[in-house]
């Protein structure tokens, strides 16, 4: 039931972003279109950006979660293909910047998943200062290139972007991701796709 409710909001948000920019989306209107109340929406999501982040995590999980560990250019390309299928949605989602923008959620996710994989696979208590800087630097750089690719501002192909992202991943992180089992539980919390 929880997943169906989240999917209902996600599906309607995707429809709304086909005709309007992210900054024009209002939770009250999203709820009206879904036949739900704002308290129902806020039970599941803090705001519309958290809903976008949930959609991003769901798309990421479709490629990486609950599979044999494999961090490769091919797996990154598969993730980008999922994004490309929803290009208009992601273009609109990334069009707005600010404190609660999708960028901040993705950056937080990138740092969290890097920390978790390093702890689990490399058996460290967490990221060192140097590792944290490397993860953040890599994440910001790749998010910038991703947005250029998403908005067709770059001539780079999906496959070339995936290969570049793989090659530029810091070695310690590449090693951790090679063996880290991305699971729905870790991505969405104990209840699966929370």
Protein topology:
Blueprint: H1 2-16, H2 27-34, H3 38-44, H4 48-64, H5 73-85, H6 87-95, H7 102-121, H8 129-150, H9 158-168, H10 171-179, H11 184-188
Describe the structure.
By secondary structure, this protein is mainly α. Helices cover 70% and strands 0% of the residues. The protein is built from eleven helices and no strands. Helix 1 crosses helix 2, helix 4 packs across helix 5 and helix 5 crosses helix 9. It is globular. It starts with a helix and ends in a 6-residue tail after the last helix. The C terminus is likely disordered.
SSE pattern? HHHHHHHHHHH
Shape: globular
Number of alpha- plus pi-helical segments:
11
Which radius of gyration do the C-alpha atoms yield?
A: 17 Å
Q: Work out the helicity level.
A: over 70%
Computed structural class: mainly alpha
Largest sheet: none
Mean pLDDT: 87
Number of strands: 0
Low-confidence stretches: 190-194
- What is the subunit arrangement here? single chain
Strand content: under 5%
**Straight-line N-to-C gap:** 11 Å
């Amino acid at each position: 039931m929880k997943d169906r409710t989240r999917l209902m909001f996600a599906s309607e948000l995707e429809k709304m972003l086909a005709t309007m920019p992210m900054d024009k989306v209002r939770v009250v209107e999203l709820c009206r279109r879904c036949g739900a109340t704002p308290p129902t929406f806020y039970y599941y999501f803090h705001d519309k950006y958290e809903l976008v982040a949930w959609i991003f995590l769901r798309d990421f999980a479709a490629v990486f979660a609950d599979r044999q560990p494999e961090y490769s250019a091919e797996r990154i390309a598969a993730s980008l293909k999922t994004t490309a299928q929803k290009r208009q949605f992601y273009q609109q989602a990334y069009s707005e910047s600010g404190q609660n923008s999708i960028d901040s959620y993705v950056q937080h996710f990138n740092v969290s998943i890097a920390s978790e994989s390093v702890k689990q696979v490399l058996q460290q208590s967490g990221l060192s200062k140097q590792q944290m800087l490397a993860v953040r630097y890599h994440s910001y750089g790749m998010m910038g290139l991703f947005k250029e690719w998403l908005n067709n501002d770059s001539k780079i192909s999906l496959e070339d972007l995936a290969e570049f992202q793989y090659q530029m991943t810091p070695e310690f992180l590449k090693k951790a991701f090679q063996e880290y089992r991305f699971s729905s539980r870790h991505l969405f919390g104990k209840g699966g796709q929370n």
